[in-house]
Amino acid sequence: MKTLISVPAVLALIITAGTIEAQEFYYGTDAPIMVVRDSSKVLLKLAPSVGAMTRDATLDSIGRIAATIPTFQSVDEFIVCSLSTGTGYEAFLDSVQAIEAILFAEPFYLLKDNTPLYIGQSFCVAFDSLVTGEEVDSINAMYGVNRQRELRGMPNVFVLLNTEQSGYRTLELANVYHNLPETRFAHPNFGLRIRPMAYKLYDYYNGYQPHTKKVIGSFNSASVWDFAGLQREVTVAVLDDGVDSHEDLPSNRVLPGYDFADSETDTRPGPELAHGMGCAGIIAASHTPDSLTGLATSSGVISLNPHVRILPVNIFDDSGHAAATDSVAEAVTYAYTHGADILSNSWGWSTAFYDYPALTQALEKATVFGRGGRGCPVIFASGNNTVMDLVAYPANLEFCFAVGATQLDDYRWSYSAGGIGLDLVAPSGDMSFRGAVWTLDQMGDPGYNPSVVSDCPPTKGPLNDEDYDCHFGGTSGACPVVSGTAALIMSKDSTLNFQGFYYILKYSAETDLDWGSITPPDVEYGYGRVDAFRAVLSISRGNVDNIIGPAGEFDVSDLTFLVAYVFGTGQPPFPSVLLGDCDCDAAVTVTDVTYLTDFLFSIGPPPVRPCFEY
User: Fold this and answer.
1) What tens digit of pLDDT does each residue of 68-105 get?
2) Long-range CB contacts for residues 9-17, cutoff 8 Å, separation at least 24
3) Residues near 500 by Cβ (< 8 Å), separated by ≥ 6?
4) Are 116 and 348 a contacting pair, CB within 8 Å?
5) Taking each helix axis from N to C terminus, what angle separates 556-566 and 590-600, rounded to the nearest 10 degrees?
6) What is the DSSP code string of 234-282?
7) pLDDT tens digits along 310-357
8) Which residues contact 318 (CB under 8 A, 6 or more apart)?
9) Alpha carbon distance 142, 567 (integer Å)
10) Is 280 helix (H, G, I), strand (E, B) or coil?
């Protein structure tokens, strides 16, 4: 539902540093998002005919411009200029707009946490489904607006371009469109940097992977992979800077995807990138018997789910610069409409106060329409060093699952965003190339770990192995741990809806941490530290013999196994004795024998699942 604002609210004033400035807003999903003009800067777009010399002369002729500010965040070819004084800002904008060589002069905005909000010429408008293309063009002609394109996979949602003929600044024009009866929402295309939530990573062999082992159970003894029924293929979309095949991630498990930053089907990372590779490695790197003994020459690291197929969906270009936010909305739509079961997102903005309705709605639709209507779990990194220690957008959306980062002693990393909206934490490493999580790099010299600069230990030979990365960290390293755990749950039970996955992830989490206990939901730890073993165990009660037979999980062999154990003539259920806890009371007794007997002979309910009694 669109939110309307009264005229007095639009004219509300705020007082900052003794200066009265008009407070403005754009329309978010549920409420207006207030912004404030930063009168020390201006955004300018010069005419296409203006060359470099004319450009410099034009800027020099504007006495108040102190310097241009390089940035990758500006949109629609606008440049950012600093100003020598902030007085008379509105009149200054009008005077600059009147210069022939300058097409647009737009204010520079800040969110309420002082995050810069770059604005351009374009804005995003969703028209009602019954509005025809001819009617769209008629409305645009009335306001002097050009249609640029329709968002892929999002019918009747357009990127429109402001023109000099409209008479409006872009923010004002977007608000005018929002209030039209023919539209569902409208907002500017802001330039606000998407930041990967982790930094350079390097990884090899299970001996270097205590972060993964922290959540999978007793390694090589009774781990999560010992549960039956986890071989079902699950597709995880990694929205990132690209994923390529690897000796530890074969090409048959890397699906064809799309690069929304460069508008191409080549989804391989740029030559110096491997953030997506690192996330994919934590989720889906291969398992081989040799890798478990540390002797393989063609397999390096363990992952949460080696049966996962990765769908690469690029939202960063080959230089690591983020795509426009409208393209990110398209990327989300592409992921859930092209077979993704889970969306893994180790990125976000560095603020909790942003809202981009087209992206917000795309993410919500993924949880509603994905997987044939069951909904895709949408897992996000909670954010690194967000202002005011709040979960970053869009991880803070109620239908997204926000993951923070902990150290191996279960204490939260100081950089990890917490607060209301944090759902879970997972083990990760430090940031800024100091992390200790091992994962995949690009094969050979490309990526984060060229052999000539690495400080990772020797692995497969006398030199560093440039195919792996040992310095991954941040909440980027935590998010794929939870995505991989969700993939294990989906392998076990694909009938769950997205809320079911969130429920299981939360209530199977470990709250009795190494340093003490928490009472969830906790602002620093959410519902606790993810525990893949407990999560899969919660939906495996009753499969006492740990075998998936022709008739499914439950048959007389489970009852036989349970009777033998309870009466002392057989072995305990493996990998956990609680597979025999059919009534969910945290004990395996004769009561469970009666319970399972009643179910098998159709006179009682099935084993309790999920069961969070551990």
Assistant:
1) 988 778 899 999 999 987 789 999 999 999 999 999 99
2) none
3) none
4) no
5) 170
6) -EEEEEES----BTTB-GGGB---EETTTTBS--PPPTT--HHHHHHHH
7) 999 999 999 999 999 999 999 999 999 999 999 999 999 989 999 999
8) 261, 262, 269, 270, 271, 273
9) 83
10) helix
Residue 211 near residue 428, CB atoms below 8 Å: yes
d(CA 210, CA 354): 35
Distances (CA, A) of 473 to 21, 200, 405, 428, 441: 41, 8, 9, 5, 14
Report the candidate in 484, 532, 489 with the shortest Cα–Cα distance to residue 229.
Answer: 489
Is the previous residue joined to 357 through a cis bond, with omega within 30 degrees of 0?
no
Contacts of 52 by beta carbon, 8 Å cutoff, 6+ apart: none
Pairing of strands 378-381, 342-345: parallel
Give the rounded percent of residues in the chain with a pLDDT score beyond 70.
89
Are the CB atoms for 255 and 311 separated by under 8 Å?
A: yes
Task: Count other Cβ atoms within 10 Å, centred on residue 388.
Answer: 11
Give the closest residue to 543 by CA, choosing from 533, 554, 535.
Answer: 554
Question: Which residue, chain included where needed, has tokens 């059919």?
Answer: 582
Q: Report the C-alpha gap between 506 and 515 in whole angstroms.
A: 20
Under 8 Å between Cβ of 363 and 485:
no
Residue whose C-alpha is closest to residue 392's, from 352, 440, 438: 352
Burial class of residue 216 in the structure, from the number of CB atoms within 10 Å of its CB (0-12 exposed, 13-18 middle, 19+ buried):
buried
Stated length of the chain: 614
Would you state the structure tokens that stand for residue 439, as one six-digit string?
């994962």
Cα–Cα distance list, 331 to 259, 284, 562 (Å): 8, 21, 49
Question: Are β-strands 122-127 and 157-161 bridged in parallel, bridged antiparallel, or unpaired?
Answer: antiparallel
Three-state secondary-structure class, residue 300: coil
Contact present, 594 and 580 (Cβ < 8 Å): no
Measured between its terminal Cα atoms, the distance across the chain in Å is 43
Cα 22–Cα 28–Cα 34 angle in degrees, nearest 5: 20
What are the tokens at 307? 């049966």
Q: Is the bond preceding residue 306 a cis peptide, omega within 30 degrees?
A: no
Kindly list the distances between the CA atom of residue 424 and the CA atoms of 387, 442, 455, 517, 520, in Å, as whole numbers in the listed order: 20, 29, 32, 14, 10
Lookup result for tokens 């309790």: 608
**Distance between CA 444 and CA 461 in Å, rounded?**
14
What is the C-alpha radius of gyration for the chain, rounded to an integer number of angstroms?
A: 27
Neighbours of 245 (CB within 10 A): 14
Report whether 381 contacts 476 (CB < 8 A): yes
Which residue, 48, 439, 109, is CA-closest to 248? 439
CA distance 149 to 349: 25
Q: Report how far residue 143's alpha carbon sits from residue 385's, in angstroms, rounded to the nearest whole number.
A: 42
**Beta strand 512-513 pairing with 122-127:** unpaired
Backbone φ and ψ for 110, nearest 5 degrees, come out as -125, 145
Find out whether 284 and 439 touch, Cβ atoms under 8 Å. Answer: no
Quick: pLDDT tens for 505-552.
999 999 999 999 999 999 999 999 999 999 999 999 999 998 888 778
Q: Give the separation between CA 489 and CA 441, rounded to whole angstroms.
A: 27
DSSP bridge partners of 22: 13
Per-residue tokens: 340: 């993704």
Helices (H), 445-473: none
d(CA 338, CA 398): 24
What's the Cα-to-Cα distance from 448 to each of 134, 200, 299, 444, 465, rounded to whole Å? 50, 6, 19, 10, 12
Of residues 347, 351, 352, the one with CA closest to residue 379: 347
